[in-house]
Amino acid sequence: MYPQRVLSGMRPTGALHLGHYHGVLKNWVRLQSEYECLFFVADWHALTTHYDSPEIIADSVWEMVIDWLAAGVDPNQATLFIQSRVPEHAELHLLLSMCTPLGWLERVPTYKDQQEKLSEKDLSTYGFLGYPLLQSADILIYRAGQVPVGEDQVPHIELTREVARRFNHLYGREPDFEEKAQLAAKKLGVKRAKLLLDLRSRFQEQGDEEALEQAKAVLQEAQNLTVDDRERLFGYLEGARRLILVEPQALLTEASRMPGLDGQKMSKSYQNTISLREDPDNVVKRMRTMPTDPARVRRTDAGSPDRCPVWALHQVYSSDETRQWARSGCESAGIGCIECKQPLIDAVLEEQKQFRERAEPYEKDLDLVRNIVADGCERARELARQTMRDVREAMGLDYS
Ligand code: TRP
Ligand code: SF4
What is the C-alpha to C-alpha distance for residues 208 and 196, in angstroms, rounded to an integer? Predict the structure, then answer.
């Protein structure tokens, strides 16, 4: 309905690591040349769990943006901003909270999971319960169609879809909707209007999903519609209301299971990470001492890559050829573990060299980063304001 806009956010709670790069940032970099992208620092989200240590957030905000830039996120292609500098997110969160049933939030799996996992913190707060709804506001305020996230976040996108649907259902009614939709259809021209209405009846009367998709494609291609008419017609296809908020899709990140130095998923809480701009000597030292197949005690023992954390990293960094060399060398005790690790060490250092080069100008002059983010905040705010005008109007808050 809108040009496919991509939005994603990241919580500023410490240095980013290679798991973030391979799981998230590489994907952002790819997306930025294909779509209009907005990437933001989710500082309010970080506060929901770090309300007692906000200094961690303050320390991480600029470093995280530098990490993004180091990874190749390009401020000329994507809009980079900070959540709390677009206060409209908070207004939409508040308005959505009016019509979001408590049960929807209590049922989000991350709510109980995180409370149990972070049991040393008191997370029975209002803000923490509202976390996924704040995320919904982040997404809906930009009418983003695609949200790149990891698997754990999929329930949040599902919730966002439900919230948007409910909002449209409650506030998307206009007294003369039917006539307005018909008028809007006429603007497509006689032939296309008829096609659209035929497809609509096929969907509404026979539940023909394909007809719905076709009808959406017709609207997608129509150039001469105003935003309002487009919203009406999209709403009209599926029912009898305007679609003010757009239901987003989760864009699942493929390689989100980057292995850490111990073979478990790379994660700060397991202390098995390599940070994006980690000191090279440190990288070498930590990779050399990585555990390997525990059954391979002596150099002459044959090993089994499937039980080895190093092998998991070969899946990420090595060519087929190198992998074959490592597997057969391991299984025949033809190579030692240090040898096996060397191509990986080289690959990680090579990757990080690029990160450090890109980051250097920003590390030297933080004003460059501040300016990029200031520009991004301004752009994001303009988009957010447009949606808020529609939302306030739909809810009848535009008193005059
Ligand atoms: N909850 C996300 C995470 O923990 C971060 C986030 C906040 C986000 N708002 C968002 C991601 C909006 C995508 C879209 O990773
Ligand atoms: Fe692991 Fe490689 Fe050693 Fe085999 S040779 S145990 S795959 S590090």
Answer: 13
Residues with CB under 6 A from ligand 2: 292-293, 296, 303, 305, 308, 310-311, 326, 330, 335, 337, 340-341
Residues 320 and 352 placed together within one structural domain of the fold:
yes
Q: Is the CB of 161 under 6 A from ligand 1?
A: no
Pair 155, 192 in one domain: no
**Residue 37 three-state SS:** strand
- By alpha-carbon position, which residue is closest to atom 9 of ligand 1? 135
Classify residue 269 by burial, with Cβ atoms within 10 Å: 0-12, 13-18, 19+. Answer: exposed
Is position 286 within any domain? yes
**Ligand 1 contacts CB of residue 303 (under 6 A):** no
pTM of the model: 0.89
What domain range is 386 assigned to? 5-172+250-256+366-394
* Within-domain flag for 218: yes
Percentage of the residues of the chain whose pLDDT score is greater than 90: 84
Average pLDDT, integer, range 143-155 = 93
Residues 156 and 216 in one domain: no
Number of domains in the chain: 3
Contact 352, 67 (CB under 8 A): no
Residue 258 pLDDT: 85
Mean pLDDT of 116-133: 93
How far does the centroid of ligand 2 lie from the alpha carbon of residue 283, in Å?
A: 18
The residue whose CB lies within 8 Å of the most ligand 1 atoms, and thus the one to mutate among 82, 133, 149, is 149
228 and 334 fall within a common domain: no
pLDDT in tens, 283-331: 999 999 999 999 999 999 999 999 999 999 999 999 999 999 999 999 9
Residue 377: is its pLDDT beyond 90?
yes
H or E stretch at 306: none
| Dihedral Cα 190, 195, 197, 200, nearest 10 deg | -160
Q: Are residues 220 and 77 in the same domain?
A: no
Residues 304 and 203 in one domain: no
Q: What is the pLDDT of residues 65-120, one digit of tens each?
A: 999 999 999 999 999 999 999 999 999 999 999 999 999 999 999 898 889 988 88
